[in-house]
Write a structure and sequence with these properties.
With 538 residues, the chain is α/β, with parallel strands linked by helices. It has 2 domains: 17-94 and 171-249, Rossmann fold, CATH 3.40.50; 284-536, no CATH class. The protein is built from 17 helices and 10 strands. It has helices at 56-64, 111-119, 134-140, 154-168, 184-200, 212-215, 243-249, 267-291, 293-296, 304-319, 321-344, 349-398, 401-407, 412-450, 456-463, 478-500, 507-536; strands spanning 17-27, 30-40, 45-49, 74-84, 87-88, 96-99, 172-176, 204-208, 221-226, 231-235. The strands form 2 sheets. A 6-stranded mixed β-sheet has the order 6-7-8-3-9-10, with helices on both faces. A hairpin with a 2-residue loop joins strand 4 and strand 5. Helix 12 runs antiparallel to helix 14 (412-450). The protein is elongated, with a radius of gyration of 30 Å.
Amino acid sequence: MKETAPFPGSDRPITTHVELRQLTVQAGRQVLLRNTTVRFDAGKVTLIVGRSGVGKSTLLKVIAGLIDEREEGLRVAGDVVMSGTSGPLPNNNRSFGVVFQDFALFDELSPLDNIRLAYAHRSKQSRNDPQRVPEQLLDELGIPADVPTASLSGGQRQRLAIARVLAYDPNVVLYDEPTSGLDDATAAEVTRVISKTHSKHPCALIIVTHDFKSSSPIADAIYLIDSEQKSLRKIEPEDWPRLSGILKESRPLSEDSFGGESTRGPAWRKLAGRQLARFFTATTHCLESIVLTPCRLVPVWKSPWWGFRFLLHYLRAVASPSAWLYIAITGAIIGFVATYFTFRFLPSANYTKPLVIEDLLRSMGFALYRILVPILVTILIAARCGAAVASDVGGKKYGRQMDALRTLGVEPRRYLLTGILYAFLIGTPWLVLIGYLSAAVTSLIVFTATHPGRGPWFWQLHFHRELVVPNHFLYTGTFWLLAKIILCAAGIATIAYARGSEPKDSTRSVSQGVTSTILWATLYVLVVHFIFAFVEFE
């Protein structure tokens, strides 16, 4: 094969090619490929086609290394090797760029920042390439910079996804169904964009598609996923005109006994077994994540700037001004109930109140600071903030943004979980403080209104008496309070990430992740406070 010149401004040759060596892929009881060996040439455009449901997108995930170990029933054997002129590339020099079918863009980032995210994680060899500067790519692909990412049209979002991949400057680019759901004219336009960008930024390019009519004009090679032979069969150029007939002749997937599970037994028993296995697996993952939380706090960020950006994103989700208002209202309700009803329904109030009013205020201040506000606020944080974070992470999992991070050489938990942990560790004590201050101010107002003869000075004199320690700045029990709040915060963060990052195949599974986060995070908070109640006040 004729060697091609290196990338402009880079010493990496574009002769990098991909080989599948004895690759076997099984999904459930269906074998998609068995002992398949294929080479995708460098600098060429390769199409992988097949009937619907034969596993084209699964194969793309296998090639790109995006298989989640927690996906049920998916087994892979064999190797995917990236090679250059001097043999196989080491793992730290291998990079795949993927243009996902649903684009996997970060809607919270601007179009330019989506590209900058990839550009910040590109290889050192391509950092001086002037053709891959984010602003240049934005202009080259005609993407408006002043429109929010979520408001871009489908075509603009796809071009943005392509620009993000180009900014990363990968060895190999993969497209997942780039013309899916498009009319003929739009599909042809997308194909022209792919061809144009490939000509300007050449590398090995693999397109997984069912729409061979639109993509075949730019193809150098076409492979068919043969569901009967369980292999990738190369279609010779002279047979391309009758590819439609070849696809119709290919058989649909059939179940195979390669490592499959027995189908014997009642359906309810199998379903119950799977649900029980999922429960214990999910619980194990949550417990494992909680144990490893201290390690996750180490900010091993490939880009410190982007690590900080993700931290700010989750800090807004946990402790935004709307959360302040939410917790302040909660604190006000707690302060009102604790003060008004305590004095309103005190037994024999006319006789006992003058005798115990000081003690009641002291007990009330102590209870609000050490018990009531921390419990109720952390429960609400577990429900509100835990759900918000689980929804965000679940959306990133379902929308493939977590896979997009992996294609940039980033382990998602490095940015997401670490940012979430710090967001909760910073936000939770702050919100508890807001809740307590709101409860205390409300208690002062209610007491002053219901006891005008005593006045605010009386409340101030007795409300904090049980908490004040002479010659100490902090109230008594503050370290106990911080300990249980921090433990609650770390647990909520870990549970929200663990449940949100589980494999998602529908929006329903995202909702289930949110619901389970609320359940488990709330239960976790109650257990923490229950344990501390025995240890702290023994």
